[in-house]
Every structure is written in structure tokens, then in C-alpha cells.
Amino acid sequence: MNPGNATAPVGARGPRSDVAFPFRADRRGRTAHATHGEHVHDLIEQLLFTSPGERVMRPDFGCGLLDLVFAPNSPELISTLELSVQAALQRWLGDLIEVTALDLVSEDHSVRVYLSYAVRATGTRRDDVFEGRAAA
């Protein structure tokens, strides 16, 4: 647990503590933890770059943005992707975040997502950039 984090939502057992993504050990050799804001960022990243069908128990989870890195770029494709990403964020993370702005850029074997959102539990507004690259 992280008792020094005053901005984390508090449950019946004290301050909230989430496992860091990707899973790793901290400097003490224990499971690394993340603040609630970092955890939400990690969840968004997982959603954006997981392909539908990749998770056995949740085959409809994900956006599959990396699957489209080599697709021909067009305004129609970008608009479709933005709607798809917006719908996935609302479906899977709508109880955690409120999306205020979303912009996708696809160029040179990478996809960049510019996302502005508010973390519902704390009211914190964030502007993050998520970048995924195609495997070489």
C-alpha cells in the first residue's frame, strides 16, 4: 500500500494501491505499485494496444490499433478509428474516466493517440499521448 498518496481513492481498508503495468519488482524486490492516476493510464494503454481476440476470456476487449499501422491512411479510416477508440474507452473504462478530447495520428509504422480525460475518482484532468509501433 502507499499511505503517502493522499489523492488516491480511499476504500474501507485504507488508501488504494494498484499493481504497476507492466508487472515488475520495485527496488525492494516486491511487486511494484502505481498511483490511481498511473494505474488508469496503464489501463488505457492496455485497451488501446490490445487486439480483439487477444484475451481468451474477453475476446471483445481492445481496440487493435497496432493491427492498422500498415493500413492505407485516409481521413475515413482515421474517423472510423476515432469512433472505435471512443466507443471502447466508454465501454471498458467509462466508469473510471470521462474523455474530453481524442485525436489519432498514424504515420511511419506507428499510431499516436492524443487523449484528454478526467479521472472520475479524483476529478484530475490529464492530457496523455499513447504511442504504439509495429513490431519489426
Automatic annotation (TrEMBL):
Entry-linked Gene3D superfamilies:
3.10.450.40
Record's SUPFAM superfamilies?
Answer: gpW/gp25-like
InterPro entries hit by this protein: IraD/Gp25-like
**IraD/Gp25-like domain: which residues?**
38-122
What's this protein's name? GPW/gp25 family protein
Annotated source species: Streptomyces violaceus
